[in-house]
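# step 3/5: fold
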Amino acid sequence: MKALPLEQSHLLELQQTDLAIAKAAHEYRGNPLHEEIRQLQGRAEDLRAATVAFEADLQACGRKTRGIEDEIEKVRSRRELQQDRLEQGKVPMRDMSALQHEIAQMDVRISDLENELLEAMGEGEEIEAKILTSHASAEAITADLEAAQAALAQFGTEIQARVDELRARRDQLIELIPEPVVKEYQRLQSRLGVSVVIEVKDGRPLSSPVDFSLAELAEIAATPKDHIYLSDDYEYMVVRTES
């Protein structure tokens, strides 16, 4: 494939430019901020779920507390009524002992209910404390998440600026290389990836992904300087350079 030595040099630079673009994309994808953001988002979601559960528990505790308070009010009202009857002498003598026993039982019941109420209120306070802790943790995570997202966005902006510059240079290089060479280069890239051009300097392959046979190295050496050698065995383009 015909190409002047300078055009071959541009082809090597084109590949280096493509490698730099791929490296920049890999650098962005590999930034640890991505994993940090995923972890923070996961923690935020877990906190939201936990807070919803705590709030449901608090509502249930509130209903339990109100139920106990209502029951205490009913028992107290009943006790006051019976105590008034007893004090006002409205109870027959034969029923007085039973009424006194009932009042004593209601006193015990009120005491038990008050203990239950204190326990329920304590549970409610514990749940409220958990909710406050969850909110505080959520605020801290949100701040960390926003900071990480801002840092990643800034990093992405820097990467994009670098890629834009590389792509501009890439466009310039393509204009300096014969169209058939560019098409073959792009065809091979679509099959093999970014690295499809091998530089053979002073007869020695540089960082070659393949092992050329001695016969093929001889063919490469015999290729005219204004031609690019195409490896039929490995589907690579070979550019020769000299020190």
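# step 4/5: annotate
Helices lie at 5-29, 32-87, 93-175, 179-192, 214-222.
# step 5/5: archive (pending)
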